[in-house]
Structure prediction request, 319 residues.
Amino acid sequence: MAIEHLEDVKIAQDIVIDPSKDAVELVGVSKIFKKSKPLLKRLLKRKQENEKREVRAVDDVTLTIRRREIVGILGANGSGKSTLVRMLSTLLIPDTGSVRIFGYDVEKDERMVQRLINRVSVEASFFKKLSPMENLIYAARLYNMPGAVARAKIRTILGRLGIPKDRIGQPLEHMSRGMQQKVAIARAFLTSPIVLLLDEPTTGLDPRSKIEVQNFVRELREVHDATILITTHDMDEAEALCDRVAIIDQGKIVAQGTVEELKQAVMERTERITPVTMNEVFMHYTVAHLITDADIERYGSWEKAFEAYEAQKEDESEQ
Ligand SMILES: Nc1ncnc2c1ncn2[C@@H]1O[C@H](COP(=O)(O)OP(=O)(O)OP(=O)(O)O)[C@@H](O)[C@H]1O
Ligand SMILES: [Mg+2]
Prediction:
């Protein structure tokens, strides 16, 4: 968090949002990264070569999140989750489409959007020589929170996340990765964000801490009417926490709905009569692009083609 946020925050207390508007609205959003080319290739300027070097990290995504919703984004490594979150938090500009937070455009109303959103990721910036308490007091000041109130709140949050009392005053650089991650999470819960973007907040945390983070998320919604977007690789977490989930594969949203709706859809698509798990739902949608019409024809059904694909993968991993 940079010092330049100081002015914003004073204004932030007067922020009035229109609660009838959607909290998050993405329409046809894409982000293309161009990998830098080696000099020789650049001279050759081969068109095909250039095309290969483009990564469509986010590809024509349309998604709406209502106020007070908790929405999970699920996707394999490199599927575009963090890129999506970065666009929502004004860190990246979309190449196409529009991104709005309570009606404010991330490009045109950048400063306003920055006041409304709060992003937590493992790459959080902290003063590593300072302790969790010092770092969090600094953050609280940016939000004009009185010192005594902040101190008490910081102790409660860090305690709930399982940071031992004697570590609260020790330099951050001596803490484990998981502990540092908890401090980043604590910062988001210290103030009451309007739209909270959590990029894999619980990855690498122990089970008790995971549950505590999930409780905080629920509390923020219940007590402060927060809207939360969370990315996760943990299907149990998605199931326990999210009102809706969206599955992203190669930058595209391939399915969205409640956990029940998605399970039902997969049962219908695979003609299964026994219940499916969220893991199976995830597998179904994230390999969808690997199973072609030709495969379905060859194996007789989507399910059989999927089984063949899985068997082939198992064979490969055994070799
Ligand atoms: N700054 C960048 N420059 C070039 N390519 C990028 C950049 N950031 C992301 N990418 C590429 O975009 C794609 C999506 O990456 P992203 O980090 O959004 O995935 P992710 O779903 O968050 O993955 P993970 O689960 O591993 O965190 C990847 O192919 C990645 O290599
Ligand atoms: Mg990521």
